[in-house]
UniProtKB/TrEMBL annotation:
<dbReference type="InterPro" id="IPR036440">
    <property type="entry name" value="Peptidase_C15-like_sf"/>
</dbReference>
<feature type="active site">
    <location>
        <position position="165"/>
    </location>
</feature>
<keyword id="KW-0378">Hydrolase</keyword>
<dbReference type="InterPro" id="IPR033693">
    <property type="entry name" value="PGPEP1_Glu_AS"/>
</dbReference>
<dbReference type="GO" id="GO:0006508">
    <property type="term" value="P:proteolysis"/>
</dbReference>
<comment type="similarity">
    <text>Belongs to the peptidase C15 family.</text>
</comment>
<dbReference type="InterPro" id="IPR029762">
    <property type="entry name" value="PGP-I_bact-type"/>
</dbReference>
<protein>
    <recommendedName>
        <fullName>Pyrrolidone-carboxylate peptidase</fullName>
        <ecNumber>3.4.19.3</ecNumber>
    </recommendedName>
</protein>
<keyword id="KW-0788">Thiol protease</keyword>
<comment type="subunit">
    <text>Homotetramer.</text>
</comment>
<feature type="active site">
    <location>
        <position position="79"/>
    </location>
</feature>
<keyword id="KW-0645">Protease</keyword>
<dbReference type="InterPro" id="IPR016125">
    <property type="entry name" value="Peptidase_C15-like"/>
</dbReference>
<dbReference type="GO" id="GO:0005829">
    <property type="term" value="C:cytosol"/>
</dbReference>
<feature type="active site">
    <location>
        <position position="141"/>
    </location>
</feature>
<comment type="function">
    <text>Removes 5-oxoproline from various penultimate amino acid residues except L-proline.</text>
</comment>
<dbReference type="InterPro" id="IPR000816">
    <property type="entry name" value="Peptidase_C15"/>
</dbReference>
Length: 200
């Protein structure tokens, strides 16, 4: 079985994106019976979801887990829902959207199809704080989560997908003031604990 694990490049005032490093650390490994294929996505409204879907078409994974940085959060947060909205700061190409739907005819939202409660429990049991988040925001992370779940729904695919936001790494916190941070090793271990659940 295959698991597509995606991260993002740096964006806005984040010169490092620890999701990229987690993807690099875990790609090629087999966790919970899943072979991890890692890909890093751009932070670009026109490109991120498109590239993610191209990777899905090529890899044909059983599970898609996308990771995003949520600098300021203090726990690892599997997302419950993606909403049909793009809004917020400009992306890395300078494109800024306001109140823009992702899919004109799409539903208001899609729930994650990952076992998010079990993810949280598994991480906490190993000593890594985690909690379900009820908003993935309206920026690129929400956009990728919504678009992947929309594709799965439209094409009736047997594929589970969803999104996990992570706190800053210490490396990133050294460059930004006033944000909680984790070691990259602990961030990676929390994500690994969540993936292991899929094998149970
Ligand atoms: N976090 C952003 C986009 C890229 C990332 O890592 C977000 O939460 O939308």
């Amino acid at each position: 079985m295959k698991l597509l694990l995606t991260g993002f490049v740096p964006f806005l005032d984040n010169p490092i994106n620890p999701t990229e490093e987690i993807v690099r650390a875990l790609e090629g490994q087999t966790i919970g019976g899943y072979e991890i294929v890692g890909k890093v996505l751009p932070v670009d409204f026109a490109e991120s979801a498109k590239q993610c879907i191209e990777h899905i078409n090529e890899v044909k994974p059983d599970v898609v887990i996308s990771l995003g940085l949520a600098a300021g959060r203090n726990k690892v947060t599997p997302e419950r829902i993606a909403i049909n909205c793009r809004d917020g700061a400009a992306d890395n190409s300078g494109v800024k959207l306001q109140d823009a739907p992702i899919e004109e005819e799409g539903p208001a939202g899609y729930f994650s199809t990952l076992p998010i409660r079990a993810f949280v429990d598994a991480s906490v049991e190993k000593g890594y704080p985690a909690v379900i988040s009820n908003t993935a925001g309206t920026y690129l992370c929400n956009n990728v989560m919504y678009s992947v779940l929309h594709k799965i729904e439209q094409e009736n695919l047997e594929m589970h997908a969803g999104f996990i936001h992570i706190p800053a790494s210490h490396e990133l916190a050294l460059k930004k003031n006033g944000i909680p941070s984790w070691s990259l090793a602990d961030l990676t271990a929390s994500i690994r604990a969540m993936i292991e659940v899929l094998g149970e």
